[in-house]
Amino acid sequence: MYIWISSTYIIPIDSTLIIGSYTSSQKKYLQNYSLSTNKFSNPYLSKGRGPSEIIYMANISLYDNYLGINDARGKKIVILDKNNAILGNSESELITYSFKKNQFYFAILTDDLQCITTGNGTSKFKIQIIDLQTGEIIRDLGKLKSNPNDMPTHIIAQAGLTYPLLKPTRDKLALAYYHTDIIEIFDLNTEKSTSLQGPETFNSDFRIYNNNWLPNDKTKFAFVSGTKTNKYIYLLYSGKNANDKKWNQGNYIFVFDWNLNPIKKIILDKEVSQISISEDDKTLYSFDEYTGYIIQTTINY
């Protein structure tokens, strides 16, 4: 699996930001930032192959009182009580569910028994629903388009890699594509989808080497991060070529409602690589990996 996705995630919980970050030098994945004291906690959740450790944190998600950490290389999801996470304690009541042989770019908790996943390199579908207790795929959605060149499924999965955002009501899933500027909304009840392309309208371009997906001179990045509320979807747009060292950064945020109606275009005065939003749609958060600063932006509608 050629992993090339955002390395930082932010989840606001009351007055705390839980920051999940991956760099090759760090030994722990999670850290908290208090919005009331403006201080960081000590890092927690160790990197490694042990029972209470993560090999590669691909993404984090929140359901009710539980924080889910997707270990893409470990083929598992680790569940941590959010109150223990706020306290910076990753050893207490840590639960691990195996995905067996399946490897997913993204895994999002939908309740305490299931998660929704994307980026499975062996599936002919875009989305899978996983039973956590068995690790089995119990539902597939969004069949991939036919491939006249018999391209391997894992290549198609990488070329069509998406940033998934689950609506808090859990009835819709937004897929924002990395390598083409397409946004797709799935109704999880009817299994029907609608899509929109822009702002530049370009397709996924790549090369295959040794049976692996690799970028070429024309490979571009579209939506590199996103966040959501019950009202809106917020997508961070890059538009950069894969050769650009800052391919995963952007300062344009496109806002849509859950029917894909354009609502607003936000232009930041600084490029960022990830975004998160408060529940009331008023405050946008980001984390500057180079300076270690938290960035807050007030949104006016």
From TrEMBL:
It comes from the Bacteria. It holds the Pfam family TolB_like. This is Uncharacterized protein.
